[in-house]
């Protein structure tokens, strides 16, 4: 089975938008196009349901039902319980709130492990725990490859470590880290696990329940939805951490780590993400429970991306004028491809824009991994990122444009 890209693109109004015609979008790691079901639900909510939810009158009942639907359906696709899924304003904000909870939970002498492969959102808040007297240990990348070696993690683990934080996939290295194996190592040492999935989830919703981490974070606006941060917090850890919300919400797991009230409309619209996955599953004949449908769609997306990614990697790895960050095998990475040039990445992105290529240049809040690899963050990298709705013609257009600017 192969992904029907024509059908996929028909589900995204951006591809029919006149102002975007002739433009190939290669900065999806910064935020994806929004799918039609999300837009429809968001518009309907603002037109018909823009009232305080969960009251007895009809518009309010429907508003609350749609919010609950989003949580329940996404949880089923992620393989976790409905109350283990929380919404917040962004993944950065969600991580900060979680770090405050962990700060109150940890005891003198406790340690936490972070990496220097992360986006700063899953690094900075945890590192600040050092200001509270806790030990912060750094799991370092290989400076040549940017990769994390699980054997290096083993040397950092002991009975004092309470939490291990790492990315499912770096937003500049692109390598897919072995979440199941790393989680097993941490759990065997008695530590909990927090995975930043922001750069992986756009390439197919992960089976969080099957992988086993205690916290999994990702962003809805990068997974074809509204601007929300979605966090899975498994019940065992969620009930151990102190409540960060209003005291009367302490007994509701999905409210414990949302200090402010949720954005009702955007939470409700997030059900459109589940609609989209189900639409893809139905179109491609994928059946079964929600988690099975999500896995099937994930595999379709990944197979399409791998096919398109390898020619780009082959093109870049053979050029002496660029340094390709991360693996050069498409199977080992996400289609988030950063290259260091002999000039600022933003300058190269500006030149690509003249060729109808929408890409990005800079440090992408990944200052630590770039510095670890000897790349000046001020110069940054050129980042070319795509997802399953990218077409082969767009890849060809990108390669032609790269020929002109490199």
CATH class of the largest domain: Alpha Beta
Name of the CATH superfamily of the largest domain: Type I PLP-dependent aspartate aminotransferase-like (Major domain)
Q: How many individual β-strands?
A: 13
Number of helices: 15
Biggest sheet: strand arrangement: 2-8-7-6-5-3-4
Task: State which percent range the strand residues make up.
Answer: 5-15%
Write the layout of secondary structure elements.
Elements: H1 5-10, E1 24-25, H2 36-48, H3 58-78, E2 85-88, H4 91-105, E3 111-115, H5 124-127, E4 135-139, H6 150-156, E5 161-167, H7 179-188, E6 192-196, H8 208-211, E7 215-219, E8 229-233, H9 235-240, H10 264-269, H11 271-283, H12 290-317, E9 323-324, E10 336-340, H13 345-353, E11 357-358, E12 360-362, H14 367-372, E13 381-385, H15 392-405
Parallel strand pairs: 1-11, 3-4, 3-5, 5-6, 6-7
Antiparallel strand pairs: 2-8, 7-8, 9-10, 10-13, 12-13
Task: Characterize the structure shown.
The protein is an alpha/beta fold. It has two domains: 138 residues, Aspartate Aminotransferase, domain 1; 233 residues, Aspartate Aminotransferase, domain 2 (3-Layer(aba) Sandwich). It has a seven-stranded mixed β-sheet, sandwiched between helices. A four-stranded antiparallel β-sheet has the order 9-10-13-12. The longest helix is centred in the last third of the chain and has 28 residues. It is globular. The mean pLDDT is 97. GO terms for molecular function: cysteine desulfurase activity. InterPro entries: Aminotrans_V_dom (IPR000192), PyrdxlP-dep_Trfase (IPR015424), PyrdxlP-dep_Trfase_major (IPR015421), PyrdxlP-dep_Trfase_small (IPR015422). It holds the Pfam family Aminotran_5.
């Amino acid at each position: 089975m192969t992904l029907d890209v024509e059908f996929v693109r028909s589900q995204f109004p951006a591809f029919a938008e006149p102002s975007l015609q002739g433009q190939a979008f290669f900065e999806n790691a910064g935020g994806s196009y929004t799918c039609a079901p999300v837009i429809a639900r968001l518009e309907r909510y603002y037109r018909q349901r823009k009232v305080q939810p969960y009251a007895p009158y009809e518009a309010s009942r429907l508003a609350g039902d749609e919010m609950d639907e989003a949580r329940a359906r996404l949880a089923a696709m992620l393989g976790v319980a409905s109350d283990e899924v929380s919404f917040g304003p962004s993944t950065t904000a969600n991580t900060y709130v979680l770090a405050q909870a962990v700060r109150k939970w940890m005891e003198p002498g406790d340690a936490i492990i972070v990496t220097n492969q992360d986006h700063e959102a899953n690094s900075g808040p945890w590192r600040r725990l050092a200001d509270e007297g806790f030990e912060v240990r750094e799991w370092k990348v290989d400076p040549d490859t940017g990769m994390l070696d699980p054997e290096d993690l083993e040397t950092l683990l002991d009975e004092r470590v309470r939490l291990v934080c790492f990315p499912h996939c770096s937003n500049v290295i692109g390598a897919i880290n072995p979440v199941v194996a790393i989680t097993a190592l941490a759990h065997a040492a008695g530590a909990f696990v927090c995975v930043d999935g922001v750069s992986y989830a756009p390439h197919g919703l992960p089976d969080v329940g099957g992988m086993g981490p205690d916290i999994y974070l990702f962003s809805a606006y990068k997974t074809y939805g509204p601007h929300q941060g979605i966090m899975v917090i498994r019940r065992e850890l969620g009930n151990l951490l102190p409540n960060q919300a209003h005291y009367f919400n302490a007994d509701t797991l999905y409210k414990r780590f949302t200090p402010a009230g949720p954005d009702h409309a955007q939470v409700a619209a997030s059900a459109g993400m589940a609609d989209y996955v189900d639409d893809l599953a139905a179109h491609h004949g994928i059946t079964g429970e929600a988690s099975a449908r999500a896995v099937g769609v994930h595999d379709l997306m990944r197979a399409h991306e791998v096919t398109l990614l390898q020619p780009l990697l082959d093109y870049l790895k053979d050029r002496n004028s660029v340094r390709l960050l991360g693996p050069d095998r498409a199977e080992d990475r996400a289609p988030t491809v950063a290259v260091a040039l002999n000039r600022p990445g933003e300058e190269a992105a500006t030149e690509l824009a003249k060729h109808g290529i929408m890409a990005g240049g800079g440090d992408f809040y990944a200052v630590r991994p770039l510095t670890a690899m000897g790349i000046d963050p001020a110069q940054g990298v050129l980042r070319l990122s795509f997802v399953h709705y990218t077409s082969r013609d767009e890849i060809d257009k990108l390669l032609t444009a790269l020929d002109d600017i490199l």
